[in-house]
Amino acid sequence: MPFDLILRGGRVIDPSQKLDAVTDIGFAAGKVAALGRELQADPATEVRDVSGLIVSPGIIDLHTHVYWGGTSLGIDAEEFCRNSGVTTSVDTGSAGPGNFAGFRKHVIEPSQVRILAYLHVSHAGIFGFSDRVMVGESEELRLMNPIDAARVADENRDLIVGIKVRVGLFASGTSGLVPLEIALEVAEEVGMPLMAHIDHPPPSYEEVLARLRPGDVLTHAFRPFPNTPATAQGTVKKVVLEARERGVLFDIGHGKGSFAFKTARAMLANGFYPDTISSDIHQLCIDGPAFDQVTTMSKFLCMGMPLPDVIAASTVNAAMALRRPELGSLKPGSVGDATLLSVREGQFDYVDVVGEHLTGDRKIASEGVVIGGRWWHPR
Which residues carry this modification: N6-carboxylysine (predicted)? Predict the structure, then answer.
């Protein structure tokens, strides 16, 4: 089969294959077709010289809010993905069973970029999140809709990858663990993983982790105090280590209030890397402190996390969390998504959610995006 596109001479970093080498990549029929030196082009093949750039599997942002126009926190997925090198945007609970049909028809289906979703167990998802109105959708238990959530998740398995719930003082008030227990029951019923948001107690970090199952995701995992995974002495809490041992996944979910350099330094110093790096991008953090996915990745690079590990946390690890092994890889036969990256050197200012600034010496930048085996951006 002739190639539709060849990326020529880039440094391919694909953690799914433990590959870090200068090579060509050929795409055909929407998939990765071959890797190798001097791949042969036909007259109709588009050839792009990407020498000097890093070619990674298509970046997956495991935590976004892209129900644009349907919720006040939603941003435009295509604009975000163009700027951030993201090929798969995973919306985490913007929609619930009461409004997922609109999300699917008006946003997901017309999108040029892939959008997958965790379905919120609350009827209308995260409906009251803006700079003027802040309503915790898990606080009012009458909004919990497990029966319809199970039905909608089952009917939309092509797009819905799991169940979402938000617990904590701001998201669930004094409802404690009840919304989490309801969401876990739905996840169990449909055989999907759960993603749990956590903010200030109640409940505690320890209480939430104790209930999560292998394959479930705790997002906002490197939170500032309170509900941080690190002790005051800079060690990792025992309950966190035990949860990882049994297969709970730890996701960054930077957002407006959920990532602190102090916490990250302690976790990385103990060798506890996040399973997945995600931006939690939405209207209240796209202009800072999160900005985008590559900025979130850059923060970890500047704190000492090796580049292949940073890429793994935004590609193959995210694909495994989604149970979509065809994503996050450049193995022949995989979905034909790729992200072109550069690592710029200099002095760059980064900020976390509590206002601490870090001057980093490197910055990961998106230089191009391939989606479905076709060059998508920039034109």
Answer: 164
Distance CA 160, CA 166 (A): 17
Q: What is the pLDDT of residues 208-224, one digit of tens each?
A: 999 999 999 999 999 99
- Token duo for residue 178: 């009840």
Domain boundary among 302, 322, 342: 322
> Is the pTM above the cut of 0.90?
yes
Residues comprising the binding site? Answer: 63, 65, 164, 197, 220, 280
Q: What is the pLDDT of residues 329-347, one digit of tens each?
A: 999 999 999 999 999 999 9
Q: Which residues are annotated as a binding site for Zn(2+)?
A: 63, 65, 164, 197, 220, 280
Distance CA 367, CA 149 (A): 39
Domain with 137, as residue range(s), is: 57-322
- Tokens for 35? 């890797």
> Rounded to whole angstroms, what are the CA distances from 190 to 98, 108, 119?
18, 22, 12
